Structure formats: C-alpha cells, structure tokens
Amino acid sequence: MDVSFVSFLGGPHPQRGIGVVAPFDFALDRELWRWVPDDISLFLTRTPYVPVEVSLDLARLVSEHETLGEAVRALGAAEPEVIAYACTSGSFVGGIAGERAMCEAMTRAGALPSLTTSGALLDALAELSARRIALVTPYTTSVTRSLEDYLAEAGVVVTGRASLGLTRHIWKVPYRDVVTMARHAVRGAADALFISCTNLPTYDVIPQLEAELRMPVISANQVTMWAALRRLGTRAVGPYQALLDPGARPGAVQLDTPPAPGGGTPTLPDGPPPLP
Asked: DSSP string of 146-202?
C-alpha cells in the first residue's frame, strides 16, 4: 500500500492581520483582498443591518461609536494589528472632527491603531501633493455635497464632479459607468481623481484611467488598504497605480529601466491593457 507523507516544515507562518469594519451592505470583500500581499490577512466584520438606503442618515447610523466599538471588539479574537473602517460616507459625514473621533473610539475599543477611509483619503492626497481634485461618486447630491464639505475643510478643492444618485446596489455598477463618470468629472485643472465609496468597484479601472487622464487616480478601497498596510510597514499590491508606486506618477523618472543597446531610446514596459 502506498503511503504519502506531507512535510509541514514547522507549520504555517504566523499571519499579520488587518481588522476591517465594513457597513452591513458591503459586497466587495474580494476587491479589498486584491490589494493585500500574501503574508497579510484581512479579518472582516460588518455593522448591524438597518433598513435604510444609502443616504446621510445611513452614514450616521453605521458610524455610531457604540456600533464601531462592538465591531472592533468582535475582531479582537483574531488579533489584528490595525483596524480600518472601510466606509467613505460613514467617515466623512461628521467632518474632520467626526473622523478623528471615530478613530479614537475604535482605538479605545480595541487598544489598536485605527483609521478610516476618509482619513486615508486625506493622507493619500497629501502623499500625492494633490490639492485640486476631480470627484466621482455613486451618491445622491446631498451625500456628494457632504463629501465636498469634508474635503473643503481639509483645504482640498473639487474642480469637477460626476455622480450617479444611487441609494442601493452600488456594488453592481459596471466598470464602464465608472470610466464614463471619470471622464465627465475631469473638467478643469486637477492634481488627481478620487472615486468615492468602498462599495463601488474600482481596482481594474485605476491604471487605465491614469493612463488616459494622465493624473493619479485613487479610490476608496485603494486608499483604505494603502493606509492600513502602511501602518504595518508594508505595501499594497496594485500594478500601474500611482499611489502605490511613485515611479508610476506623472513626471517620474524610471531609474530601473536598462539602457537600450547602442545607447538608443530604452524600451519601456507595456502599460495596462485598455478597458472598453
């Protein structure tokens, strides 16, 4: 009888982890994972269901400190090293002071460093030296205006915008609609484009839009993962994304490109494949 032996080599390596608190309707777990390197795990939990559509009222309900505290404590058994609240509207609805208070509440509940999507957004804009941005949202006018107020409080000017007016099923928006909104939003001079809402798919459109618009393009899920992973001293995974790779930013010099034979013009790597 054949007997197969498995060598465990000492067992699996310990996984460092990020605790993620998401709203009850969040449907893009897989998108978050795409930014995460193999040696990091995500531990996700969701806020309790409430029968309210996407609105300022919902943003306030899913960001209550007691709700966040319970979610953070539920994540404690998995022993994450940092907590990320993955919701844009829930973290900008109270302004800058409200966002900071949310981080403090989560830190108190879990004794861990904490961040939010909207706080990560401001960090990402600072990283890119972006003070004028084009804005894409799936939200209604009132929610989009609240985001603009938050940005204005931080000294960020919105030069153009496009929104869908949705109150539900945001995760079902196809990439082509995101691309169309981005093109409409870039109307004036802007340093970057921000695509809001962690429930709006963006991973694959970022590199294509950066190539087309010739500016950094950042999204809610991207900045959340970028900021959380940076807290762990590691980098998010995302090819052709300017926030994650300084060499991909406009005007960056590609120092690692070898010279062409005979001193001619070097052949640069191919860019991202086009989207329809």
From this structure: HHHHHHHHTTPEEEEEEE---SS-GGG--HHHHHHHHHHH--S--SEEEE--TTS--
